[in-house]
């Protein structure tokens, strides 16, 4: 039984059901596990340039969005590129996977195939989120509905005590999804259910005492073996930057608006590759003028901030794109911002966030 009643339909955007933003239709393209081949990345870059605003906008679920898609033909391009394997399932292919875990990445691909092969699961809400964590604790803390974490099955972030080996992980996660469909009522997320025990009932596996797992969200920016992790400013990847990544090889888009490039990346792309770059800790929704609900040009205001603690700038109370992990909440008002609930004029934002950062450092000492 659901603990809350939804009074409106799930309007999560996709390719066929776009969102009418102030800057034009917004289309979201799912990338299960974040994995994308060089050829498919080139196809997205071409589509963004030919049909949209010329950029790929990374999301907090490891997907990409195209904004201002005012010209037709996007779906046909994506089908030809293999980015829409099942049009009926395109909004439910929400799968996170640890970027550095081969096991998690392989399971994400298998989960996507099995998900798309089940007509019943096309009815999942567009917000339902799967995750496959190789044990790093990176995606397990990203607000997922059901997560396989190196054998442990988690629901809404909590360990159930159920242990399932990798070879049965896909079946276990899909069993949970089917049980959710049967019992969800009006709920969109597992966290909205009063009782989650029925969701794992009957799933084969070992049962242990539930435990608390540590989470370590994020991917280190910079070289990682033969790969390199980079971040576009505010998650906006230009078509030129996407092509540069494609020339380097395949890639993995992460839920932290960064990209793991699996080959040698050419210099001077404008992508952040320095782990000490001040802007790495700051994220922002699209703000004005792209969103009619936004009360400020939050990206312009955020860009004027120097080094700061992890913070998210939001143009309205919806707080689109906010990180799942701890951060400073910077919410636009008509004449300034609320920084963790306290009003701060625009001109004093840098000082307020610097003070937040100093307090955070002292608290860790």
From TrEMBL:
InterPro entries membership = NIR_SIR_4Fe-4S, NiRdtase/SiRdtase_haem-b_fer, Nit/Sulf_reduc_fer-like_dom_sf, NO2/SO3_Rdtase_4Fe4S_sf
What SUPFAM superfamilies does the database record attribute to this sequence?
Nitrite and sulphite reductase 4Fe-4S domain-like (SSF56014), Nitrite/Sulfite reductase N-terminal domain-like (SSF55124)
Keywords recorded for this protein, A-Z = 4Fe-4S, Heme, Iron, Iron-sulfur, Metal-binding, Oxidoreductase
Which Pfam families does the UniProt record give? NIR_SIR_ferr
Q: Where in this chain does the record put each Nitrite/Sulfite reductase ferredoxin-like domain?
A: 27-70
Superkingdom of the source species: Bacteria
Q: What is this protein called?
A: Precorrin-3B synthase
Q: Organism, per UniProt?
A: Amycolatopsis oliviviridis
Query: Per UniProt, what is the name of the gene that codes for the protein in this document?
Result: cobG
């Amino acid at each position: 039984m659901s603990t809350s009643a939804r009074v409106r339909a799930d309007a999560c955007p996709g390719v066929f059901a776009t969102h009418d933003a102030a800057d034009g239709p917004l289309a979201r393209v799912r990338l299960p596990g974040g994995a994308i081949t060089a050829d498919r990345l080139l196809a997205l870059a071409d589509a963004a340039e030919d049909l949209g605003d010329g950029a790929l906008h990374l999301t907090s679920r490891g997907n990409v969005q195209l904004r201002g898609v005012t010209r037709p033909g996007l779906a046909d391009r994506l089908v030809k590129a293999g980015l829409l394997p099942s049009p009926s399932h395109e909004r439910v292919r929400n799968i996170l996977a640890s970027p550095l875990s081969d096991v998690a990445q392989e399971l994400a691909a298998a989960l996507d195939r099995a998900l798309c092969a089940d007509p019943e699961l096309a009815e999942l809400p567009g917000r339902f989120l799967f995750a496959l964590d190789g044990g790093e604790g990176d995606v397990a803390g990203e607000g997922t509905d059901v997560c396989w974490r190196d054998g442990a099955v988690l629901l809404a972030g909590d360990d159930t005590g159920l242990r399932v080996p990798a070879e049965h992980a896909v079946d276990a996660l899909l069993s949970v999804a089917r049980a959710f469909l049967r019992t969800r009522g009006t709920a969109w997320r597992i966290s909205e259910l009063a009782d989650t025990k029925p969701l794992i009932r009957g799933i084969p596996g070992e049962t242990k005492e539930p435990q608390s797992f540590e989470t370590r969200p994020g991917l280190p920016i910079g070289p990682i073996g033969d790969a390199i992790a980079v971040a576009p400013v505010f998650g906006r990847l230009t078509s030129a930057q996407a092509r540069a990544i494609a020339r380097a090889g395949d890639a993995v888009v992460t839920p932290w608006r960064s990209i793991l490039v699996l080959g040698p990346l050419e210099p001077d792309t404008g992508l952040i590759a320095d782990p000490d770059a001040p802007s790495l800790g700051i994220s922002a929704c699209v703000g004005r003028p792209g969103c009619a609900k936004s009360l400020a040009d939050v990206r312009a205001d955020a860009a004027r901030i120097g080094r700061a603690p992890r913070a998210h700038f939001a143009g309205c109370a919806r707080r689109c794109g906010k990180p799942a992990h701890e951060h400073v909440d910077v919410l636009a008002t008509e004449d300034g911002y609320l920084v963790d609930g306290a009003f701060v004029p625009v001109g004093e934002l840098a000082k307020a966030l610097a003070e937040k950062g100093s307090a955070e450092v002292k608290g860790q000492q």
